[in-house]
């Protein structure tokens, strides 16, 4: 008996949807020109949800149940364009807009939340602007406050405040109106609401770090034995931990990096040809009554290069269910490294390293460099911005004087890690002063041009 062959048009719809979901984004769109039935099928949410889950593009967490087919398609198409722009042999192309609000020469600080909301701090308060809307000099929200300290580094934010999603952020800034305090706001961008959450004393403050619902104020100290403080924002709890034992002078703080994850606080001190690392587990309870008064160090070790800047490579992969003393925990970091010795002798360059740090139950740390590249800049001031998820990473390094801007694409798989780089040439922006933000999910770079203009560059 001869088997009857089944044509594509005779396949059940659920099978067709499953097959189409395995196609690249561009091919799903191309099939709309084949026939009416495939055109109709290409608009089904099932297809785009499958394509989203399988995609190796840099995408936000998802798909979520409230995202329809057109929204998922838009995200995938944009991510595909960004990756093509980032990785092709052709020069980078950007559309350019200028923020219409003219800024003072120095007395402001700014950054961008989720690649969309420009956050501007001036002496009389904070204001937020939606960069996805038609650019307007009118803010979507304001928070009046007298005597805001606009020094660079004193304006911080963290999305997913108290686990309430990407549309809710903690915002911290310093108010110098006596007494000097760190003001912590809760900002809801979906409801356009700003509320005061708490205040923390800001005496002798020189820097601060905000991440995973924790605020770390870095202060001047009178004695190297003075403890440091860590503030848990939701419960308004203050916890102490010791300064790194090798810190003896205030100038040593300039060589420190502080990384906060959902599980750990990392203290990193760069000395000569290595970086010393101390690790402190963070409390995992949500009750103020159960918060300890002190943190206890669990791990210590050293990375064989001095680190200038460091960021957690992919925060979404941190497993909060693992207890830090029960088994090995592996975290990946992306960092700027001072390269002191090259193959032919001494040099003075900046390197970009992707490395793993493994926390062992016995308290030791081991490190494995997965990928490294020397940037074509000397020992200059270099900033690092990146977006990553599931082994995909887009990063930007900005070095001055110059300035020199590099676009980095990093892809990590079980078989290894590939790190590519290309130059971003924006000749009309020769007076770039600072980079405010880079968001790889939207393909957006925000820069301060000269002293009073903010430029918005989109590569999608």
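^ structure tokens above, recovered residues below v
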């Amino acid at each position: 008996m001869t088997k009857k062959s089944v044509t594509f048009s005779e396949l059940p719809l659920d099978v067709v949807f499953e097959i189409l979901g395995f196609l690249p984004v561009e091919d799903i769109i191309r099939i709309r020109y084949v026939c009416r039935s495939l055109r109709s099928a290409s608009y089904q949410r099932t297809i785009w949800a499958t394509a989203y889950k399988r995609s190796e593009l840099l995408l936000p967490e998802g798909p979520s149940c409230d995202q329809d087919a057109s929204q998922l398609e838009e995200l995938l198409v944009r991510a595909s364009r960004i990756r093509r722009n980032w990785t092709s042999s052709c020069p980078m192309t950007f559309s350019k807009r200028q923020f219409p609000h003219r800024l003072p020469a120095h007395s402001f600080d700014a950054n961008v939340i989720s690649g969309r909301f420009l956050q501007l701090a001036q002496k009389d308060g904070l204001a937020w602007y939606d960069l996805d809307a038609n650019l307007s000099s009118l803010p979507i929200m304001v928070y009046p406050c007298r005597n805001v300290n606009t020094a660079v580094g004193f304006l911080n934010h963290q999305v997913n405040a108290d686990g309430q999603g990407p549309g809710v952020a903690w915002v911290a800034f310093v108010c110098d109106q006596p007494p000097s305090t760190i003001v912590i706001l809760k900002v809801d961008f979906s409801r356009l609401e700003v509320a005061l959450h708490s205040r923390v004393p800001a005496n002798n403050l020189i820097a601060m770090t905000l991440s995973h619902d924790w605020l770390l104020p870095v202060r001047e100290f009178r004695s190297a034995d003075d403890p440091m403080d860590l503030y848990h924002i939701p419960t308004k709890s203050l916890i102490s931990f010791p300064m790194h034992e090798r810190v003896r002078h205030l100038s040593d703080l300039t060589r420190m990096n502080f990384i906060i994850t959902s599980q750990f606080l990392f203290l990193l001190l760069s000395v000569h040809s290595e970086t010393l690392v101390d690790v402190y587990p963070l409390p995992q309870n949500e009750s103020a009554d159960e918060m300890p008064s002190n943190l206890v160090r669990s791990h210590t070790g050293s990375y064989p290069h001095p680190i200038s800047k460091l960021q957690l490579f992919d925060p979404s992969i941190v497993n909060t269910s693992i207890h830090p003393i029960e088994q090995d925990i592996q975290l990946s970091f992306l960092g700027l490294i001072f390269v002191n010795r090259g193959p032919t002798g001494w040099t003075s360059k900046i390197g970009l390293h992707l490395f793993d740090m493994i926390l062992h139950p016995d308290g030791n740390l081991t490190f494995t460099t997965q990928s490294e590249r020397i940037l074509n800049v000397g020992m200059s001031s270099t900033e690092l911005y990146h977006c990553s998820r599931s082994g995909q990473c887009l990063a930007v390094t900005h070095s001055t004087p110059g300035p020199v801007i590099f676009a980095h694409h990093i892809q990590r798989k079980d078989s290894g890690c590939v790190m590519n780089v290309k130059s971003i040439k924006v000749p009309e922006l020769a007076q770039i002063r600072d980079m405010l933000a880079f968001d790889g999910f939207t393909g957006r770079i925000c820069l301060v041009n000269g002293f009073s203009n903010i430029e918005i560059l989109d590569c999608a």
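The CA atoms of residues 386 and 395 lie 4 Å apart.
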